[in-house]
Design goal:
Elements: E1 2-4, H1 11-24, H2 39-47, E2 48-52, E3 59-69, E4 72-80, H3 85-89, E5 94-98, H4 107-121, E6 126-132, H5 136-144, E7 148-155, E8 158-166
Antiparallel strand pairs: 1-3, 2-3, 3-4, 4-5, 6-8, 7-8
The structure holds coenzyme A.
The site of coenzyme A has 21 residues, from strand 5, helix 4 and helix 5.
Amino acid sequence: MKLISPNTAYIESYRSALAEFEQSGISGFWYSFGAIDDPEEYVRSIAHYTHRSGANGGAVPASVYWLVDGGEYIGHTSLRHELNPALEQHGGHIGYAIRPSKHRQGYGRAILEFALPIAQSLGIPRALVTCAAGNTASRRIIQSCGGEFVDEVDWQGTTVLRFWVETSQ
Ligand SMILES: CC(C)(COP(=O)(O)OP(=O)(O)OC[C@H]1O[C@@H](n2cnc3c(N)ncnc32)[C@H](O)[C@@H]1OP(=O)(O)O)[C@@H](O)C(=O)NCCC(=O)NCCS
């Protein structure tokens, strides 16, 4: 298992994972990436992209990494190099998702563990990580990575929990 920059070697596996996310009704940062018309161009464009959130959230530089295991795409994480007002409330420095067919196998915890040293290398000593109050799996992941609870905020009608996570584990 490892975290890699998006790579066309995994593109078919990634395509099938996107279909799983869609069927499960799970949305996230990757929905803004558009269609995979040209795989080479697609992986290049998401490896370093501009993350936009909220009407007045502003744009920040971000990088995507893929968690792969046994030749298969498992999940992805988006590392925001800095925060904007929207990400301070919801989204934080690090977002992640595991393809539904691979849930509850420890990959969610692994992806955050792998993402933290990358955040550190980007000059982020502690990362803001958030989850919806009802997202038990994500909350457990954040807490098992040492997340220190900050507060809960209302984000467009959803209660969001905010945590600081030290990136040097
Ligand atoms: C949240 C998510 C990443 C979890 O991935 P996962 O690979 O299933 O997580 P893990 O297997 O590492 O499980 C982490 C913990 O959550 C628990 N857990 C997993 N799914 C759960 C569920 N549906 N209900 C309750 N607990 C759950 C696990 O038992 C484990 O607990 P433990 O540490 O006490 O053993 C995954 O559900 C997902 O991609 N969801 C959609 C996107 C999302 O919500 N991303 C997070 C936004 S910040």
